[in-house]
Amino acid sequence: MVAHLTAAASLFAPADCPRLVIKIGSALLVDQKGNIRLDWLQAMAGDIAERRAAGQQIVIVSSGAIALGARRLGLAKGGRASLEDAQAAAAVGQIALSQQWAALLEARGLVAAQILVTLDDLEDRRRYLNAAATLDRLLELGVVPVINENDSVATNEIRFGDNDRLAARIGQAAQASGVILLSDIDGLYTANPKTDPAAKLVPQVSRIDARIMAMADRGSGSGMGSGGMVSKLEAARIATRAGAHLAIISGEHDLPLRRFVDSNIGTVFLASKAASARKTWLVGRLSVKGNATVDAGAVRALERGSSLLPAGVTAISGRFERGDLIDILDAEGQKIGHGLAEYDADEAALVIGKRSDMLADLLGYAPRAAFVHRDHLVLI
Ligand code: GLU
Q1: 3 lies in a domain?
Q2: Do 250 and 183 meet the contact criterion of CB atoms below 8 Å apart?
Q3: Whose CA is nearest to atom 6 of ligand 1?
Q4: Of 277 and 28, which is predicted with more confidence?
Q5: Closest ligand 1 atom, residue 25 Cα
């Protein structure tokens, strides 16, 4: 749903947003030749310092490690030709990147901290809570945490791969009120503005529905980072469900935050009422191990807040274990939610489509009440 209100930069102002996550993409940090864009970054650090002085706590999610390391090592394709190249480039680039951030922030009287996380660190609830506590303490101490994915140890299967979703997940862990994604585009357009001259900027979105999703198209404009509009919308979904507003604004100006305040140009995704902390964490979980297709009756039951029972499942796929995350699909194959499976895939194959009173006989032991319990289930 597109809300017809003015884009509200004030939602991200220190007075209304005590904690803000700012994501800065590779193309803004590093130029096409692989050099750090120092002037732009110095201005950005000034902008951040102003917000800190006004009492806003800031977390920076900074990309650029792979792009920077690739340049230092002379690697082809910006260091993304193979996983090994990306890992090596990130290791070399990250140390330069953190030195740069530490110096830039120090010049403004601010203390920087670095945290590198993997997808697993945030998918595992205990590690997630641990990371959240660290962030909390750093912010209380007035430090500016600078965060990136630990690309040198992440493998293709277990990585965020883009810092948009990482920023949203960090926003959730830090209980931020706002997340700003600095992009190479002004925000979400109704169509791809590079190919469709009639495309219009969408100022505000109150619900990320199929119409909004259809506006995005894959692929990063710069070819340097890895996010596109789809990963930004996924980030918006995670952040807004966690109770944070998310803005996509252009970083291709000096002082992009100030420009946003002055012009309101950007797309703001409004926070929805935050669910319980555990459900919020569940919304943001990303490593899906399989899926379950459900019938129309089950869709209605889920919308009323019920658990998913085996009887409502028409098909499953994937090699999931009990406790793994699975997507829930309607009969048309559209994802309607996800949750933690109560059965592993082999048991599930026996019980789907079966009434609850038949399960004990089929399994040879007392069955679990639900296929996905409502406490471990979120609709998207
Ligand atoms: N973590 C990657 C890096 O630092 C960037 C991911 C992205 O492109 O969003 O290079």
Answers
A1: no
A2: yes
A3: 162
A4: 28
A5: 9
If asked whether residues 352 and 203 sit together in one domain, one would say no
- Ligand 1: centre distance to CA 230 (Å): 16
Residue type, position 366, single letter: A
CATH number of domain containing 255: 3.40.1160.10
Ligand 1, residue 94: give the atom nearest the CA: 4
For tokens 């918006």, the residue is: 236
> What is the structure's pLDDT at 227?
60
225 pLDDT tier (thresholds 50, 70, 90): low
243 vs 6, residue with greater confidence: 243
Alpha carbon of 136 to ligand 1 centroid (Å): 24
- Answer yes or no: do 195 and 344 share one domain: no
Model confidence at 6, pLDDT cuts 50, 70, 90, reads very low
Compute the distance from residue 86 Cα to the ligand 1 centre, in Å: 10
Residue 34 sits in the same domain as residue 146: yes
- Tell me how many domains the chain contains: 2
Among residues 204, 200, 317, 328, which one has the least CA distance to residue 269? Answer: 204
- Among residues 171, 184, 338, the alpha carbon closest in space to that of 240 is found at 171
pLDDT at residue 281, as a whole number: 79
Are residues 139 and 182 both part of a single domain? yes
64 lies in the same domain as 166: yes
Integer Cα distance of 112 and 257 in angstroms: 20
Position 24 scores a pLDDT of 96
Question: What's the Cα-to-Cα distance from 312 to each of 121, 292, 294, rounded to whole Å?
Answer: 33, 10, 5
Task: Read off the pTM.
Answer: 0.80
Mean pLDDT across 184-205: 89
Q: Which domain holds residue 262?
A: 8-280
Q: Are residues 63 and 156 in the same domain?
A: yes
Q: Which residue, of 225, 248, 280, is where some domain finishes?
A: 280
Domain boundary among 253, 280, 307: 280
Ligand 1, residue 163: give the atom nearest the CA. 9
Q: Ligand 1: residues whose CB is within 6 Å?
A: 26, 63-67, 90, 148-149, 151, 162-163, 225-227
Residue 63 CA, closest ligand 1 atom number: 4
